[in-house]
């Protein structure tokens, strides 16, 4: 799909990666609707990109449905909003678990359900789901986050298969650790030296490519991380033991601590 002139609903536009996606799609000629909870940040992005602002809390079912109802004719959905949801499951209250599931998984599913029909009736559309490599490999301290991101992977692949031949594509994007902006960068936790990172622009480039080339899945990470991910998918137990031996426990505990205020 050509992006020029198309209408895009982008969630999580106020985040580190979301802002890069907004600028990339705007540069490609999209008419943007940017969504998030922070109206002031959305207003700044709108001033830069000419976007329409749509404030909504995706954990609130009424606000979620109102957001989609107000923008039901979009050509492209980029479901990017998420909470880090890092830490051991026993550290989450039941409300915090609900919020992570609602924002990271339920909202993209509901938005896809409500938007896909009109895309199919027009014979054209693209749904892009921003997952994570934590949606392919689960590690200590990632159970809840991985549940949502593995869920997005399965949802996206199944929906893509359902929509074959309809003119509507579904893409799932899997970033590894992202530097310079976003939830990992803000945690200020130092990565072990052997783990490479990507930039927010790399993720934005992947979103653009997903739309323009209808790609089913795109991993966004340096080659070494993508290779380790493949090995983990083939032998999850072995890789998990290796990562533990390399001292991942300290890193995951620090991440959970520094991201606890986003639960
Ligand atoms: N950063 C990384 O290293 C990394 C790696 C892999 C995957 N990802 C994925 O990339 C995507 C973007 O992440 P990021 O790093 O840009 O995160 P971020 O900077 O923390 O931004 C998160 C975004 O989600 C929105 N959001 C959170 N709760 C919401 C709610 N209840 N209702 C509506 N919007 C809500 C936030 O908007 P408001 O605060 O305005 O509500 C914000 O725009 C996520 O799906 C994330 O899982 C990130």
CATH level-two architecture: 3-Layer(aba) Sandwich
Describe the main β-sheet briefly: 7 strands, parallel
CATH superfamily: NAD(P)-binding Rossmann-like Domain
Give the number of helices. Answer: 10
Structural class: alpha/beta
Report the strand count. 7
Q: What is the CATH topology? A: Rossmann fold
Mean pLDDT: 96
What this model shows, in words?
The chain has 263 residues and is α/β, with parallel strands linked by helices. It has a single domain, classed as 3-Layer(aba) Sandwich (Rossmann fold), CATH 3.40.50.720. The chain is built from 10 helices and 7 strands. It has helices at residues 16-27, 39-49, 61-70, 94-122, 143-162, 183-187, 200-213, 223-234, 236-245, 248-259; strands spanning 7-10, 31-36, 52-55, 76-79, 125-130, 168-175, 217-220. A 7-stranded parallel sheet has the order 3-2-1-4-5-6-7, sandwiched between helices. Strand 1, helix 1 and strand 2 (31-36) form a beta-alpha-beta unit. Helix 1 (16-27) crosses helix 7 (200-213), helix 3 (61-70) runs parallel beside helix 4 and helix 8 (223-234) crosses helix 9. It is globular, with a radius of gyration of 18 Å. Bound molecules: NADP nicotinamide-adenine-dinucleotide phosphate (NAP). Residues 12-18, 36-38, 57-59, 80-83, 103, 130, 132, 175, 177-178, 182-184 line the site of NADP nicotinamide-adenine-dinucleotide phosphate. The site of NADP nicotinamide-adenine-dinucleotide phosphate (NAP) has 26 residues, from helix 1 and helix 6.
């Amino acid at each position: 799909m050509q992006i020029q002139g198309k209408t895009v609903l982008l969630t999580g536009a106020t985040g580190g990666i979301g802002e890069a996606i907004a600028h990339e799609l705007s540069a490609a000629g999209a008419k943007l609707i940017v969504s998030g909870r922070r109206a002031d940040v959305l207003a700044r992005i709108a001033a830069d990109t000419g976007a329409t602002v749509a404030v909504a809390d995706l954990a609130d079912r009424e606000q979620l449905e109102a957001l989609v109802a107000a923008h039901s004719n979009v050509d492209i959905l980029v479901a990017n909003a998420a909470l880090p949801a890092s830490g051991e499951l026993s550290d989450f209250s039941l409300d915090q678990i609900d919020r992570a599931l609602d924002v990271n998984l339920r909202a993209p599913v509901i938005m896809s359900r409500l938007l896909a029909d009109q895309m199919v009736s027009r014979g054209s559309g693209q749904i892009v789901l921003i997952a994570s490599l934590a949606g392919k490999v689960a590690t200590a301290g990632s159970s809840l986050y991985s549940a949502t991101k593995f869920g997005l992977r399965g949802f996206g692949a199944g929906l893509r298969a359902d929509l074959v031949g309809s003119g509507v594509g579904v893409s799932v994007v899997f970033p590894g650790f992202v530097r310079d902006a976003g939830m990992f960068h803000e945690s200020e936790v130092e990565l072990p030296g052997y783990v490479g990172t990507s930039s927010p622009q790399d993720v934005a480039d992947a979103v653009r490519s997903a739309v323009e080339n209808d790609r089913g899945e795109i991993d966004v990470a340096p080659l070494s991380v993508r290779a380790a991910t493949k090995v983990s998918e083939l032998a999850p137990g072995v890789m998990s033991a290796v990562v533990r031996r390399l001292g991942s426990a300290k890193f995951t505990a620090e991440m959970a601590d520094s991201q606890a205020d986003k639960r």
